[in-house]
From TrEMBL:
Lineage: Bacteria, Bacillati, Bacillota, Clostridia, Eubacteriales
InterPro entries xref list: Ac_CoA_lig, ACAS_N, AMP-bd_C, AMP-bd_C_sf, AMP-binding_CS, AMP-dep_synth/lig_dom, ANL_N_sf
Domain of life of the source: Bacteria
EC number: 6.2.1.1
Organism this protein belongs to: Sulfobacillus thermotolerans
Protein name from the UniProt record: Acetate--CoA ligase
Family to which the UniProt record says this protein belongs: Belongs to the ATP-dependent AMP-binding enzyme family.
Domain AMP-dependent synthetase/ligase: 94-490
Length: 675
């Protein structure tokens, strides 16, 4: 992996920013925290692996207890809570009904301030999930089937997920902002017979028609040889279908029309083995094809629950708001599964946080009494840059705030702490990934001091390590960066990549497996794909991806996916995507292309290139700039040197280019980009 295109060389440059600046949690927080016993941390030492994870398993309600916490006999296909049986929807809903049926599960806040909020109690959720599960069952959905859900941020999204879980069907949620083509790719790979969508939704003050994407997805899936049998269409305003896309007879079903027949219906939850998959979530990797990350029922759910309890410190009386989209892993683990499993009250906000103005988050926090606030560095940066924000005019108190998804600059961290958190909220900087199911590195909020810009140590039960490219451990405090890996298995980790176990093994275990024949988990560290540094205090600072993945506003995009979208245009000869620094979004894609002989650069062509990306993936992958250049810098073996292009875009030292096959082109490109 460490060829000239990786950013490992950049990560090796030590960045010492305010290395020793610490902040302590306030005494009032410590007194009330779920995890406040420092002695309890000792239980989680590596010598006690895997037994310490039993405690996490006990947070769930099991139909049948497990016989064995961990089965490592077939590395790296670990099995957890073997023999145990449970249902995820029962754990997220039914088990709370006896005591908390009237407690709010979700507050749904529509983007338009004039539209009233919806309060969904655990009893309401129970009713809606059962009715929808009954409908799915009548359409033939059964245990093990895959169901693709392409919905915006509405309550119908967790309802659909939990209805699948009740039936033992595997949901595959596609982020609402992805295009119809991207949805089709995921439908085909997962072989879903049912697609769940919505007519449209509000975002950024506009009505966005969404059902059109379902039509594209079904058509494109058909072209690829897969037939979607049913498209279930929710209406944003039930009873009023609003979309340019007409309903297709025999295929599309308006949920609101048929659900009347299911009023009061109950569905017996299917008792699943702990190891049965709960869901797939497609994410970007080093190839042009997103991979279906497969998460288990028992292992994943107990990990999301335990981390929500220990790190987010969610307690029964808290009101919790995570601003992520449920279409990404953060929303799965920390809006749906973790908080519901703990019986919490949380917020689903439909739209953009700056609508109608940048004070919206504070007005929502004030109205609902939100006291745990979960967001990303990009959102924090955009609040910081916004005109007229006045958190001081709103009455709210955050006991804990979360940052996730990208490295946060210490400066931005401090602003978050002082201005949004009012010097009273504890911040957890949580580092993790789609594949890991839940947090890996973070401070334990009542026990560890905070250090701006550093995620913290491994959370209880997680033992990270940094390796250099040769597999040697890099010592704490050495100031050198390397690949962050996890020494031990944990039960939130992906089970495999859907239909591609070889890719699973090679991507996460290929580089650092000490002995492929070994049956000992010690020989199989998990490689995350991030560069990181370990300070002498045991805190990890995450430096960014070392592979062909870029992180735009906390959203993960594959450079190869974007490049393959562009290469579908006949006029384009070669394409290279790089991560360019952006003050707001951390990084954004910039695209360099060379054209086929005889093709003349034009604005029209650049626009077509951008349109191809938006159609194939979605607006989040839109490049900030398309540079049409005479040729791309290449090694003598023909490898495109993206690192050089990134240095030009980011105005950094380019280094020696004399060994390139075409060194002269570097100058030409430099002249174009930085005249
Ligand atoms: O590079 C790391 C970055 O986001 C990547 C994972 O992206 P995704 O699978 O979409 O999941 C995002 C939400 C967990 C990681 O490989 N990342 C995530 N959290 C942090 C982070 N980088 C720095 N600090 C974080 N707290």
């Amino acid at each position: 992996m460490a060829d000239d295109n990786t950013r490992i060389s950049e990560t090796e440059i030590a960045v010492h920013w305010h290395e020793e600046e610490y902040y302590s949690p306030p005494e009032s927080f410590i007194q009330q925290a779920n995890f406040r016993d420092a002695d309890a941390l000792r239980k989680f030492e590596l010598d006690n692996f895997p037994d310490y994870f039993a405690e996490y398993g006990h947070l769930l309600q099991w139909d049948r207890p497990w016989d064995q916490v961990f089965d490592g006999s077939n590395p790296p296909f670990w099995k957890w809570f073997v023999g145990g049986k449970l249902n995820a929807s029962v754990n997220c809903i039914d088990r709370h009904l006896a005591k908390n049926r009237n407690k709010t599960a979700f507050y749904f806040i529509p983007e338009r301030p004039e539209e009233p909020k919806q309060v969904v109690t655990y009893q309401d959720l129970f009713v809606r999930v059962n009715e929808f599960a009954a409908l799915l069952r009548d359409l033939g959905v059964k245990q093990g089937d895959r169901v693709t859900i392409h919905l915006p941020m509405v309550v119908e999204l967790p309802v659909a997920m939990l209805a699948c879980a009740r039936l033992g069907a595997i949901h595959s949620v596609v982020f609402g902002g992805f295009s119809g083509q991207a949805c089709a790719d995921r439908i085909v790979d997962s072989e879903s017979d049912v697609l769940i969508t919505m007519d449209g939704y509000y975002r950024g003050g506009k009505w966005l028609s969404h059902k059109d994407k379902a039509d594209i997805a079904v058509d494109k899936a058909k072209e690829a040889g897969h037939i979607v049998k049913h498209v279930l269409v929710f209406e944003r305003h039930p009873g009023t279908y609003t979309s340019n896309a007409p309903l297709v007879a025999g295929r599309d079903i308006l949920v609101n029309d048929v659900i009347q027949q299911y009023r009061g219906r109950r569905v017996e939850p299917v008792s699943m083995r702990a190891e049965d998959p709960l869901f797939l979530m497609y994410t970007s990797g080093s190839t042009g094809k997103p991979k279906g990350v497969q998460h288990s029922t028992g292992g994943y759910l107990s990990y999301a629950t335990a981390t929500s309890k220990n790190i987010l410190d969610i307690q029964p009386e808290d009101v919790y708001w995570c601003m992520a989209d449920i279409g990404w892993i953060t929303g799965h683990s920390y809006i749906v599964y973790g908080p519901l499993s703990l019986g919490a009250s949380s917020v689903i906000y439909e739209g953009v946080p700056s609508y109608p103005d940048a004070n919206r988050p504070f007005s929502i926090a004030e109205e609902l009494g939100v006291n745990i606030f979960h967001t990303s560095p990009t959102a924090i940066r955009s609040l910081r840059m916004a005109q007229n924000i006045a958190p001081q005019n709103y009455q709210y108190h955050f006991k804990l705030m979360v940052t996730v998804g990208e490295p946060i600059e210490p400066d931005v961290w401090r602003w978050y702490y002082h201005v949004i958190g009012r010097d009273e909220a504890v911040i957890v900087d949580t580092w993790w990934q789609t594949e890991t199911g839940g947090f890996l590195c973070s401070t334990v909020p009542a026990l560890d001091k905070m250090k701006p810009g550093s995620a913290g140590p491994g959370i209880p039960g997680i033992h990270p390590v940094i390796y250099d490219d040769e597999g040697h451990e890099i010592a704490a405090g050495s100031g050198r960066g390397g690949n962050i890996c996890i020494r031990n298995p944990w039960h939130g980790a992906l089970q495999t990549i859907w239909k591609d176990p070889n890719r699973f093994v090679s991507t996460y275990y290929g580089k650092y497996c000490k002995n492929p024949e070994s049956k000992d988990w010690h020989d199989w560290p998990y490689m995350a794909g991030d560069g990181a540094m370990l300070a002498s205090d045991g805190y990890f600072r995450i430096l960014g991806r070392i592979d062909d993945v870029i992180n735009v506003a906390g959203h993960r995009l594959g450079t190869k996916e974007i490049e393959s979208a562009v290469l579908k245009l006949d006029d384009v000869a070669e394409a290279a995507v790089i991560a360019a620094h952006d003050d707001m979004k951390g990084t954004v894609p910039e695209l360099y292309v060379s054209l086929q002989p005889g093709v003349v650069p034009s604005d029209e062509l650049s626009a077509r290139i951008v349109a191809a990306i938006v159609t194939e993936i979605g607006p989040i992958a839109r490049p900030r700039k398309v540079w049409i250049v005479p040729d791309l810098p290449k090694t003598r073996s023909g490898k495109i040197m993206r690192r050089i292009l990134a240095s030009i875009s980011n105005n950094k030292e380019i280094g020696d280019v004399t060994t390139l096959a075409n060194p002269e082109v570097v100058d030409t490109i430099h002249q174009m980009v930085r005249p």
